[in-house]
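step 3/5: co-fold with S-adenosylmethionine
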Amino acid sequence: MPMEIGTEFDVTIGKPAAGGGFVGRSPDGIVTFVRHALPGERVRVRVTETSSKFLRADAVAILEASPDRVEPACALAGPGGCGGCDYQHASLVAQRRFKGQLIAEQLERLAGITMAVTVEPAVKGDTGLGWRTAVRFSIDEEGRTCLHAHRSSELIPVEHCPIATDQIHAIGVTTHRYPGMEAVSCFGHPDADTALVAFETGPTGFLQTPEVTGAGLSVDGELLTPPARAKVTVGPNRFDVSSESFFQVHRAAARALTAAVMDAARVQPGEQVADLYSGVGLFTVPLALAVGSDGVVISIERSTEATADARRNVRHLSQVQIVTAPVTARTVADLLPGTDVIVMDPARDGAAKGIVDALCSLAPGARRMVFVSCDPATFARDVARAQDQGWHLVSLRALDLFPETEHVEIVGVLER
Ligand SMILES: C[S@@+](CC[C@H](N)C(=O)[O-])C[C@H]1O[C@@H](n2cnc3c(N)ncnc32)[C@H](O)[C@@H]1O
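step 4/5: write tokens
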């Protein structure tokens, strides 16, 4: 059967695949990554993408349904709809099982580690909805707020995103039209003193929408007014977060991840700690409180906006040095000798080449490294690099900080 886009065939679905789908095989035996299906199901698929090695397809009819299947909360979470959520058609228990399998598979494949991985909810009783505190809506030609179709530049108009927080909905951003703009980014966190909205416009200039407050306006990436800042409370600490800075996206993530990192790092008073890719200092502050005034925390982050926030967030902690720089083998070698504990939380790509080696060869040598990651493959690759240098993974926790999507957060502890 010639496999063209739009071809349909029936398939039995196997294990979860990285990228949000599940593995099946076409009648000719070609590996097919199927979205909107579940393991064990018999489904009719329609091919959406072809290549010489594999196919991508959407399940368009469920012939034999899995007991894990549920009704998606969002009408756009189906074939041809919004690409943001991969797993809305699966129960939360099943979603976490898939994520655990994806982590275990990458650890085995890339680092030779065999372990069963249990994924914990971000917070007890998480419903999987109303968690997303930051959304960037692209704007279509009619000025409507949109999200992207899966692996596509196609824009899907969105009036209500059920995974977004009530605070995002309260801003009312999706009730307006923004002709001429490229994107509207919103930050609405239940533990923040204010919501933030930032507009990005194309070369034609910008429009102000008076109903939306707290806006930083930018034209072609250049900020025309300073971005608004929110204060977000996380346990006993408050963090300045400006609209340009990264902040953990799940409403419970900052608290849950901080607790997991502090448990993993087990720093002692007087120690020297490195917080790499440190953002606004979410981990820096509790690490500094744990090492006390006789200790040192060196935090390295390349974003000037995030480090400006971080300097405000640590101004009462003289044991902290905030460094605005990319994390590189050179910054590690220059700034981090004498470090006892390293916490590293890079973006999805993981640590760039050479950084894990540089961390492993610091003198006189750290006693513990905590790798935080939202990507099982780059996490496993970085663990494998550390293993090559004589370190090993001693524990791992996985947190469901991105319900309804294939994404998952990992906190791994490595020791020599
Ligand atoms: C996943 S966030 C973690 C931030 C922080 N740990 C937190 O939980 O809020 C990754 C951070 O790494 C920063 N970043 C990305 N690439 C970087 C690089 N090459 N060097 C330093 N920082 C980088 C980003 O700006 C972002 O703040």
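step 5/5: annotate
DSSP finds eight helices and 22 strands in the chain.
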